[in-house]
Amino acid sequence: MYMYYGITMVFFTVFWVCHIYIYINNMTLFIFYHVSYQNVTPFLCIIIALHSVEYHVLPCDICIINCILLLQVTVRDALNQAMDEELERDERVFLLGEEVAQYDGAYKVSRGLWKKYGDKRIIDTPITEMGFAGIAVGAAMAGLRPICEFMTFNFSMQAIDQVINSAAKTYYMSAGRQSVPIVFRGPNGASAGVAAQHSQCFAAWYGHCPGLKVVSPWSAEDARGLLKSAIRDDNPVVFLENELMYGVPFEMSEESQSKDFLIPIGKAKIERQGNHITVVSHSRMVSLCLDAAAVLAKEGIECEVINMRTIRPLDAEAIETSVMKTNHLITVEGGWPQFGVGGEILARIMEGPAFNYLDAPAVRVTGVDIPMPYAKILEDNSVPQIKDIIFSVKKTLNA
Amino acid sequence: IYRMMQTIRRMELKADQLYKQKIIRGFCHLYDGQEACAVGIETGINLSDHLITAYRAHGYTLTRGGTVREIMAELTGRRGGIAKGKGGSMHMYTKHFYGGNGIVGAQVPLGAGVALACKYLGNNEICVCLYGDGAANQGQIFETYNMASLWKLPCIFICENNKYGMGTSVERASTSTHYFKKGDFIPGLRMDGMDVLCVREATKFAAEHCRSGKGPILMELQTYRYHGHSMSDPGISYRTREEIQEVRSKSDPISMLKDRMLSNNMASVEELKEIDVEVRKEIEEAAQFATTDPEPPLEDLCN
Fold it and tell me: Domain Transketolase-like pyrimidine-binding: where (chain A) (predicted)?
């Protein structure tokens, strides 16, 4: 994947040198593509073709641009496509939440869906989380497959009784008689400048509860495959997105474009192989871990970066296998330190076979134990930064 | 109808006995006195319709298709219980019956959700969504009234007003005790919840209203429970024995029906007595099963 991208970049660079004028105009189209959030690639081909005369673009430029454009999908679009495809595939799937229909989604994740599917399947709700979450759970009990959007997971606290007591516990309490095939989704964790009441991470809270599956995607591919799996899962799934990741483009493989592309819930992914230390993370923090790993690689430290993908059930085996290879472990998360995701991972490592392989105590890198402040300098220092990860890695390795 | 009410009455009294013998443990909220509500409602709807209620649910579990055996075995926590011993008194489920819900008021949005599914699937079914006078002030209920009314969900909201929310009388809990009016734009009816035929006719009316696409409707059933809030509540610290006695003698739902049937020559004394005997037998057998059936196997713990 990276190699393919590299080759196209080489070609692109060569032609870029020769066609600077054309490059500038094409980049405008490139940016336009991302900003518009629509899957207009075929349309774009025509635009480029029409403009090619004007901008003296060579046919190969068009191919390269199209190739690059085709493979780049933002997390937002991936989520949108996943929902679109699942809505199409199963009549019982529907979406409800605040502003999901006519507003196209508070963060535009459900853009275009109301236009396509109408009032019956894309439902705007009043600002009554406890009520509409309960209604969604009831609909799931009666045989539908709702996607219940919380504008952010901070507001899910209003409805948390319905998520835990009505959704999560019911399958067990009814001895398997009553299932609740619902997905609760929405942005989780810190955003930018939204302050304390809008920045909490709920991975640990929901990860604590039996009866729920809790998923935390990082890349566009994660978002697509995991959301599809979540919708098709007969259990209640809490799907923790990240607002800062919505606009980030990722390469998507050919295979991941298939309508039946599913990523299994409960399996982590090794995003980067390494031998010196295991770095476990989820959601946006994976980006920072990979950036930190790139910096550390220059100093000869090879990090193995694991993207958890799922919080519950936790893929302890993947982490253990890695730790048994690298002998060192740190966890990185945006949430608060006490009773958190990192705490659980460390406890599992202690209790499992990997403990004997540790050459140093495992360490957690987390958000600071305070309500999120507003001022940028304070906010920036309330969540892990690349330098914090680098510091932790080095400290663990030198211990 | 008579048999069903008598069965509920006998079953609840048996449960009282078993609880005092410590064979049933935990929470046990008994329904005796309110039989006319459960039975009247069930006869006003179809089995294919849906129903959800709170924790005083044994009567509804029966009317919705559960057997006395399964219910009692669930109360005693045995593997033959309707939820295999995993749910207990408050978490019993049958087809189109969604419990049995422990959190006060939480079942109301759930019920509206079921109604949404009925409308979505276009199956002409409705959902009966019950709650008590204690729950009636819950915020989520008002949230639900709004959405049910906005989206015209085929939902019958029913408030079983037995005059006490645990130990708090309605006068001490609500500024307005006109529970049937709390639905704002949702039309509301209030009726005698001790008269099973009245409940039946009202339910039929309400069901027709919902099925015709007019949206939700609200019913307040004025009823009474003989037992305390639960088995740990003697029920006499916040009300007088005289009050309970008066209801028993003047407005007992089973007696009222019996008198009506006899005075209209719909049944003879012997026929009713025969039913009573059969019911007692059924309850005895069920209790026998419930006390002898083994507990769930440990393997079931994580299954």
Answer: 73-248
Counting beta carbons within 10 angstroms of the beta carbon of residue A386, is it exposed (0 to 12), middle (13 to 18) or buried (19 or more)? middle
Residues of chain B in contact with residue A178, where contact means CB-CB under 8 angstroms, are 93, 98-99
How many CB contacts within 8 angstroms connect chain A with chain B?
Answer: 115
Helix axes A341-351, A316-326, angle to 10 degrees: 70
Task: Give average pLDDT by consecutive 10-residue segment, chain B, 303 residues.
Answer: 96 96 95 97 97 97 96 96 95 95 97 98 97 97 97 98 96 96 96 96 97 97 96 93 95 95 93 95 96 94 85
d(Cα A238, Cα A108) in Å, to the nearest integer?
Answer: 20
| Residue B112 contacts A, CB cutoff 8 Å | yes
Nearest to A125 among B86, B117, B147 (CB): B147
The A residues from 136 to 155 touching B (CB cutoff 8 Å) are 136-144
Domain layout of chain B by residue ranges:
1-292
Query: Which residue in the set A130, A136, A162 is minimally distant from B139, CB to CB?
Result: A130
Distance from CA of B91 to the nearest CA of A (A): 6
Name the pairing type of β-strands B164-165 and A269-272: unpaired
Tell if the CB–CB gap between A142 and B150 is shorter than 8 Å.
Answer: no
Which tens digits make up the pLDDT trace of A307-333? 999 999 999 999 999 999 999 999 999
Question: Which architecture characterizes domain B1-292 according to CATH?
Answer: 3-Layer(aba) Sandwich (3.40)
Amino acid, single-letter form, for residue B58: H
Report ipTM (2 d.p.).
Answer: 0.95
Q: How far apart are CA A105 and CA A115, in angstroms?
A: 12
Over residues A345-368, the pLDDT tens digits come to 999 999 999 999 999 999 999 999
Does B113 contact A at CB distance below 8 Å? yes
> Active-site residue numbers of A?
129, 198
